[in-house]
Amino acid sequence: MATDELASKLSRRLQMEGEGGGEAPEQPGLNGAAAAAAGAPDEAAEALGSADGELSAKLLRRADLNQGIGEPQSPSRRVFNPYTEFKEFSRKQIKDMEKMFKQ
């Protein structure tokens, strides 16, 4: 599902750039991500070259994983900060809740 969403975003972006620039080579029946996954790695990089870096990196990573090339990455080590996550509570309320849950 997420791959389909990224592919639709990429195809819309490529379509918008194609309308502005005049040249948009599209394959009938295939969107940008499906064409990139079906083609060689060079073709995938070329097809995703006009997309922003984060979106193209995600699509290339998913294409590699689907083909069995990529290695799994460890999940990001994001630190949970309750003060920024729950802005509706004061710091004192959050500290009181933490004490209550730790008992």
From TrEMBL:
Transmembrane segments: none annotated. Keywords: Calcium, Metal-binding, Repeat. Residues 1-50 are annotated as: Disordered. InterPro entries: EFHD1/2. One of its GO terms (molecular function) is calcium ion binding. Residues 32-42 have a biased composition (Low complexity). The keyword Metal-binding applies. PANTHER family: EF-HAND DOMAIN-CONTAINING PROTEIN D, EF-HAND DOMAIN-CONTAINING PROTEIN D2. This is EF-hand domain-containing protein D2. It comes from Diceros bicornis minor (South-central black rhinoceros).
